[in-house]
Specification:
Layout lengths: L1 H19 L13 E4 L2 E4 L14 E4 L9 E4 L17 E6 L2 E6 L1 H11 L20 E3 L5 E3 L40 E4 L2 E4 L26 E3 L5 E3 L29 E4 L2 E4 L23 E4 L2 E4 L29 E4 L2 E4 L7
Antiparallel strand pairs: 1-2, 3-4, 5-6, 7-8, 9-10, 11-12, 13-14, 15-16, 17-18
């Protein structure tokens, strides 16, 4: 009898050992907590559990997908230990982002606030769907109109002490400026309870002076002047332009620098060069379309010296508008002429504004 029992125990042991060392080619034929290792199904390395990730926004996983190795994964969104609103901060909440617990904007909180701000009222200040606390028996309907409904809106009304309706927005001023806003029509005034009141904070911000010079910069049209914080041009020694260095005039023998020689060559940087400008030079040697060095304030046009203020080294450009108000360099209202330093010049057939 004892021999039979020992035989049974031996057979069961062999079967158990056989099942623990089941032959395999992949993890698919092994048990849930087993892996295929060296052709045998054996207990998985991470079956005993993985260590704590150490963060509320991370978790560990193990299985066939991770080759039975412990793997740390990030949690996105709210999770235990990283959720709820942030104390002391408006519409901010805690949430897991890329495995870290951070503060993010609570969009639902903002949407709820915006919905609460949109409250429609009737002319007496009663919210839509509510009984009027000013006019007995009336309801503010969905069209923002007071509608008589009788007993339905008489229960809470007390003629001896009627409740005050919410304060409505104050009417705008006569020029259309909303209450507490700066007027765009009357500069320097603010609308307070339907009355325009002088207010320096409603004055436009000064950014420059009358000649378009920005505050704190030197004027380009008035030498030695600077644009102050008050928008006025004031003298400033730092804005005086330095005299440009005088270049040494070399010349080409008997031909002065910049003039044409008798044989029709142009003297430039001490060398005579062939140039078309010298074909129509003037009698004083000035090349065509060039400023004369011999006759100051004149230019040569097709062999004739013509007065040209810009050819004077001391010339300072000052824009001169035309008598009809057209700015120099611009066309008039009718677009038939353009203003050239105070003179209206008629446009040619091929010219247009």
């Amino acid at each position: 009898m004892k021999k039979i029992i020992w035989m049974i125990v031996l057979i069961v042991g062999i079967l158990v050992m056989t099942s623990c060392e089941k032959s395999c080619k992949s993890d698919g034929v092994c048990g849930v907590s087993e892996e295929c290792r060296n052709g045998k199904c054996k207990t998985a390395k991470c079956y005993s559990g993985c260590p704590d990730s150490g963060s509320v926004c991370k978790y560990t996983s193990c299985g066939q997908g991770t080759n039975f190795q412990c793997e740390i994964n990030n949690i996105e969104g709210s999770t235990s230990g990283c959720m709820g609103s942030v104390s002391g901060k408006h519409c901010m909440k805690l949430s897991c982002v890329e495995g870290e617990c951070v503060q993010v904007t609570d969009t639902r909180c903002l949407e709820k606030e915006n919905q609460e701000k949109i409250i429609e009222r009737c002319t007496d200040g009663t919210e839509t769907g509510e009984c009027s606390l000013v006019k007995r028996g009336y309801l503010c309907n969905g069209y923002k109109q007071l509608e008589f409904v009788g007993e339905h809106c008489e229960e809470d009304y007390d003629e001896r002490s009627p409740k005050k309706a919410p304060i409505l927005e104050t009417e705008p001023c006569d020029d259309g400026t909303p209450n507490s806003k700066c007027s765009e029509n009357t500069i320097g005034y603010v609308c307070i309870n339907q009355t325009l009141i002088k207010d320096e904070t409603c004055l436009p911000e000064i950014t420059g002076c009358s000649d378009s010079t920005l505050i704190g910069e030197c004027s380009e049209t008035k030498d030695g002047f600077k644009c102050s914080d008050e928008g006025e041009l004031v003298e400033d020694s730092d804005c005086i332009l330095e005299e440009p260095p005088v270049e040494e005039i070399v010349g080409c023998g008997d031909t002065p620098e910049g003039d044409c020689s008798d044989d029709g060559k142009w003297c430039i940087h001490g060398e005579l060069m062939v140039d078309e400008a010298c074909e129509n030079q003037c009698d004083d040697g000035t090349p065509n379309w060039g400023c004369s060095f011999n006759t100051v304030g004149y230019t040569c046009e097709d062999g004739v010296l013509i007065e040209e203020p810009t050819c004077d080294p001391n010339y300072v450009y000052v824009p001169i508008d035309c008598d009809d108000g057209t700015e120099t360099g611009y066309c008039n209202v009718d677009e038939t002429h353009w203003c050239d330093q105070g003179v209206l010049v008629e446009l040619g057939p091929d010219e247009f504004c």
